[in-house]
Design a protein that fits this description.
- This protein is mostly helical.
- It has one domain (about 5-235).
- It has helices spanning about 5-35, 45-60, 70-85, 90-110, 115-135, 145-165, 175-195, 200-220, 230-235.
- Helix 2 packs antiparallel against helix 3 and helix 5 (about 115-135) runs antiparallel to helix 6 (about 145-165).
Amino acid sequence: MNPKEQVSIYYRVWTMAWVVSILTTLAASTLIAARLAGFVVAPHHVLTRMASAGFLVTAATSGGWQRRFGAFLLAGLVCCWLGDLTGERNFTLSGWSFFFAHLFFIAAFLCRPHDWKRALVLAPMLLLVSIVLAGVFVPRAEAWDGLLVGAYITAITAMVIMGAAASAGKRGWILLLAAVLFYVSDIFVARWRFGSGGSMNGIFCYPLYYTSCLLFAAAPRILGDGLSLGAVGRNTGYKT
């Protein structure tokens, strides 16, 4: 097999894996919401594992892990996967997994060009919302969960503000959109855990959360920061 054919096979494998993982994530998150609404009868944990595996495969096949931006995003998504894996059995462990996920997302944003004016415009409004949410949910949590909620709100607020700063450049808005979707999905998670509405909150939180993770996973390729065919060519001796 000559290098040119090898590059072509790599490209097809990446594309097929990327498309399949996107469809898996979207389908599974939709089924989860439909199950919670009573329209679908299916094992909840199977669907969440499918969706989580989908965004991990998307991240891996985007090629971004070879650069700091994509590597930090992938690390954050691995933490999200761990949070999904432990969430049904240990809320506190799951929450700290997502806390570290946001730290990795912030690290990824720091690898991008910045527009601090966007962050300064968003920060006052978002801080006000976060303070209100902390005032509502922290008192309802037990001691250790209260510490988690406070730390988590701080981390995700910083993540969204940094997402605004990192949204500069062509298609950079994808990062801010992913950050905002994650933030909103966690409001429904907090209502589910500490507020009202019960499992009906899952109808909103799951599609928002998995769409956010999917955008983070695909970001290196969408933003042109993933592993290109040119990089494959350099590895195989074939120049594209």
